Amino acid sequence: MTVEAAGRPLVAIDRDRLAARLDDEGEAFRKSHPRSLELSERSRSSLLFGVPMSWMARWAGDFPVFVQEAKGARVVDVDGHEYVDFCLGDTGAMAGHAPELVVHAIAAQAARGSTAMLPTEDAAWVGEELARRFGLPFWQFALTATDANRFALRLAREVTGRGKVLVFDWCYHGSVDEALAGTQFGVVGPRAGNVGPPVHPALTTKVVQFNDLDALEQALWARDVACVLAEPALTNIGIVLPDEGFHEALRDLTRRTGTLLAIDETHTLSAGPGGCTRAWNLEPDIVTVGKAIGGGMPAAAFGVSGELAERIAEHTEADYEDTGGIGGTLAGNALSLAAVRATLEHVLTEEASSHTIPLAERFAADVAETIEREALPWHVTRLGSRAEYRFRPTPPRTGAEAAEAIDPELDRYMHLYALNRGVLLTPFHNMALISPATTLTDVEAHSEVFGLAVHDLLAR
Ligand SMILES: Cc1ncc(COP(=O)(O)O)c(C=O)c1O
Question: Over the stretch 291-322, which tens digit does the pLDDT of each residue have?
Fold first, then answer.
């Protein structure tokens, strides 16, 4: 069967065949992972949802594989299967698993003391390096990107005296209450499934579609928005790239309305050492970044412009130092900062990008070739060392368009098929992250598995 889209005849997926293939893959997974199954069943008696964190239940099998060890771009599970890892801890292990110099730095710092509520020299080094990379002079640390974003929003409200935040529909900035909002027919509401929102998000948040400059202008015009919190490209609903001129207009509109602009580079660090901020010459007031920078250790940071730093300091009545809402006892701890320093100094470097980005290009080119050859109504997008395919023929311009392409069964089939053949993809995405340890052979392994998954699904 074929359908017409994107100016070419495309095949439609046979849903019965998909369901049957999914059953086969599920059965194969259960049979080949007895030890993971056993541990999963055991965990159900002590862990809520049977996993240490609820989202670990999202993997495509009926239970997650339990990890024995992870090194470089490889994960070995407790049943002895080895995987090429393109998930990389959904960016947390973007530097590759257990990079040697990071492991040494962590071990050395752990032996010297992990946390003392006092700074170490590494903090100064990391601040200077982040300033060099992102062009913002002053930095603070957190343990998660969620916290970095929360602190950024609090500071933005403090200095502007405004109550609201603006985010783009289908964004994700961690479990930040203000950002867990969506919009339908122009009405702001909680994101579907939002767990116990403290207040209705319309009270705190405006939401517009990515790339919709008219809606953005309208939303900012009332001058009640403290801060726009944005990824430079959406990455959590597949990759949605900005239109030509979008960022210039976003910066112009925020400046003209006295709104601060926070750019969340947590995922878009894939664009290079200074994320999209550097690659696209963006001029945010705030940059937030987390996950990858710790080389596997919990670490995050936010940086502010010189002008914003002055405005923050002018608010002498604000309790920045104790219980005012910005903090975290272990934020900026010596162990995390030793890991961040080693990661930025030795692993996620300029040279690393010149290895990872071409490999991601190859990954995307191979996927595109299969899509084209098999006339699938899918496309693949890339942002630096991150590539993702999606089940619609053309790249979306907004989060809402991207969301329309969600296909949980197809998603599960592609993930499970890959998992059963030694390839890990992130459960929330059809995404590949390329680490400095990833090789061309790894990418070719995925290309082959992707081609076979499609072939078995279509089997004409
Ligand atoms: C863009 C972005 N910002 C922030 C976060 C939150 O990171 P964390 O879960 O480490 O707090 C995420 C998580 O996926 C993210 O994708």
Answer: 999 999 999 999 999 999 999 999 999 999 99
Q: Are 374 and 454 in contact (CB under 8 A)?
A: yes
Statement: residue 1 has pLDDT above 50: no
Closest CA to 430 of 366, 393, 381, 359: 381
- The CA 132 to ligand 1 mean position distance, Å, reads 23
Nearest atom (ligand 1) to Cα of 265: 1
Instruction: Establish whether residue 174 lines the binding site of ligand 1, counting it when its CB lies within 6 angstroms of any ligand atom.
Output: yes
Residue 424 φ then ψ, to 5°: -100, 125
Percentage of the chain surpassing pLDDT 90?
94
Residue corresponding to tokens 């992990």? 114
For residue 123, report the distance from its CA to the centre of ligand 1, in Å: 22
Nearest CA to ligand 1 atom 9: 174
Q: What is the pTM of this model?
A: 0.97
User: Residue 270: CB within 6 Å of ligand 1?
Assistant: no
Whether the per-residue pLDDT at 85 is higher than 50: the answer is yes
